[in-house]
Amino acid sequence: MRLMFVNYEFPPVGSGAAYALLATAREFVSMGHRVDFLTTATPGKTLTEVIDGVQVHRVRAYRRGVHEASVLGALSFVALAAGSPYVVSLRGSDVPGYDPALAWLHKPMLPVTRRIWHGAYRRTRK
To answer: Are 58 and 45 in contact (CB under 8 A)?
Structure first.
């Protein structure tokens, strides 16, 4: 099977979710699947490389720095990475209601969030 993982952050950028998704991708490769990983470009990294059998594709998106994510950066990535069937896997602050301090962001994004969730081939929550 051929799989495409999509995440705005990819190691060394990001924290738990980025590393967890890379570990998941590696497991699929070890089972004989082809895995491509679409993520944002990182300063000092090439736009394509293979890491442990995972083909990594980086697209340029607005980002102030390696450790500075922003709403504008995430939206620019989504605009450049849209179009294929996808699976949604939520962790931590990605889940509306997980972090009350982010309610100001999740509430106005609810129509977009619902569209993304309902368009997903599968949904998981951890």
So the answer is: yes
